[in-house]
Automatic annotation (TrEMBL):
Cofactor(s) needed by this chain: a divalent metal cation
Domain (Mandelate racemase/muconate lactonizing enzyme C-terminal): residue spans on this chain: 143-236
Name this protein carries in UniProt: o-succinylbenzoate synthase
Residues the record lists as binding Mg(2+): 190, 215, 240
Record PANTHER family: O-SUCCINYLBENZOATE SYNTHASE, O-SUCCINYLBENZOATE SYNTHASE-RELATED
UniProt KW keywords: Lyase, Magnesium, Menaquinone biosynthesis, Metal-binding
Function: Converts 2-succinyl-6-hydroxy-2,4-cyclohexadiene-1-carboxylate (SHCHC) to 2-succinylbenzoate (OSB).
One family name in Pfam for this protein: MR_MLE_N
Native organism: Siminovitchia fordii
Catalytic activity: (1R,6R)-6-hydroxy-2-succinyl-cyclohexa-2,4-diene-1-carboxylate = 2-succinylbenzoate + H2O
Residue positions of the active site: 164, 264
Pathway the protein acts in: Quinol/quinone metabolism; 1,4-dihydroxy-2-naphthoate biosynthesis; 1,4-dihydroxy-2-naphthoate from chorismate: step 4/7; Quinol/quinone metabolism; menaquinone biosynthesis
Length: 375
């Protein structure tokens, strides 16, 4: 196929509730949607970078810069793009910037699948027809408010409850959840890199709570200290921020830094790399699950497709649209078809259409790039 047009729409979507992590508080989502068109068919991808580089090094502005200046001009010159993996030649010319690459790669996967008339799930080798989902709960102002939110999520049927922690809001709130809701709730904590090895005594106090895992307790770029910490903890460590590629996954698993991996399509540079990590982890008996980045329905749809692969055996953070949005930009929105379960769509591509009206209501800026005709 030949891609004739690529569009970058920057959107601002207000969150229903502020979302607080150990690195800060988000009130709205500011992100980029990539549209790629060939023969009148358009595929969509979503950038998961935040406006500021507080989760990883990328930001909305760096995504726009890398796509506009370095990647899109090369893609619009490609003579032959038979498969999304052909983008790799171009991607190799830019180190890092994985969220920028993933946003474009996602649009090309959707386009490729729509042209072939197959679902993205099938094209990736997915086998599940439905996926179990969990919820990620931000840091709440008080333990009481956290308990209310956890209770409501349990009532809604979420299959995993993840709670954000930070120094000063860790052992007490997690103990309070266990006391109120019991030891059977599938419960985990995510620290977003807020601790160091100095904090091992605090983290050890979580062990009796039998959490499913603790996500990224130490630095965003570390695996060595995580391996040291894992030797001290009975709670399994799950890496998020530190894993950017299948090579990172291999090294982290080999040194014992992680027993479970959170795969985020954007963080690892796209669906092709996400699948490689999934396959490697499967061969090593390491379970994986799909993380979230407060995506709109477009990013959620990609997450649902990759989660249909068999080693995504732990419920991910792909909650329905109404967890975050009054009005999402897909039609239909992402919904439970029974509590805690989302159906994997069977239609071509991501299987969710665009709600054009809602989409345009959130757009704040558009750039369009077209192929220069060659004779
Ligand atoms: O999209 C979701 O529901 C997951 C939310 C979440 O946990 C998160 C949100 C923003 C930044 C980082 C993370 C994370 O998983 O670490
Ligand atoms: Mg995380």
């Amino acid at each position: 196929m030949v891609i004739e047009e690529i569009r970058l729409d920057r959107l601002e979507m207000p969150l229903k509730h502020p979302f607080e992590t150990s690195f800060g508080k988000l009130m709205k989502r500011d992100f980029v949607v990539v549209s790629a068109t060939s023969d009148g068919i358009t595929g969509y991808g979503e950038s998961t970078a935040f406006p500021l580089p507080f989760y990883n090094e990328e930001s909305t502005e760096t995504v726009l810069y890398i796509l506009k200046e370095l990647i899109i001009p090369q893609v619009l010159k490609m003579e032959k793009l038979e498969h999304p993996e052909d983008l790799d030649q171009i991607f190799q010319s830019v180190k890092g910037h994985r969220m920028a690459k993933a946003a474009l790669e996602g649009a090309v996967w959707d386009l490729y699948c729509k042209r072939k008339g197959v679902s993205l799930s099938k094209a990736l080798g997915g086998t599940k027809t439905e996926i179990d989902v969990g919820v990620s709960i931000g840091i709440e102002p008080t333990i009481e408010e956290l308990l209310d939110r956890v209770g409501s999520c349990i009532d809604q049927g979420y299959k995993k409850i993840k709670v954000k922690i930070k120094p000063g809001f860790d052992v007490k709130p997690m103990e309070a959840i266990r006391e109120r809701f019991g030891m059977d709730v599938p419960l985990m904590a995510d620290a977003n890199s807020a601790y160091t090895l100095q904090d091992v005594e605090i983290l050890k106090q979580l062990d009796p709570l039998k959490l499913m895992m603790i996500e990224q307790p130490l630095a965003y770029d570390d695996i060595i200290d995580h391996a040291t910490l894992q030797k001290e903890l009975s709670t399994p460590i799950c890496l998020d921020e530190s894993i950017h590629s299948v090579e990172d996954a291999r090294k982290a698993v080999e040194i014992g830094a992680t027993k479970i991996i959170n795969i985020k399509v954007g963080r690892v540079g796209g669906l092709a790399e996400a699948k490689k990590i999934h396959d490697y982890c499967q061969s090593m008996n390491i379970p994986v699950w799909c993380g979230g980045m407060l995506e709109s329905g477009i990013g959620r749809a990609h997450n649902i497709a990759i989660t249909s692969l068999s080693n995504f055996s732990i419920p991910g953070d792909t909650s329905p649209s109404d967890r975050y949005w009054d009005q999402d930009i897909t039609d239909p929105e992402v919904e439970f078809y029974k509590p805690g379960v989302i159906k994997v769509p069977e239609g071509p591509g991501v299987g969710y259409g665009l709600n054009v009206q809602a989409f345009h209501d959130y757009v704040v800026h558009t750039d369009t790039f077209t192929r220069t005709k060659t004779v």
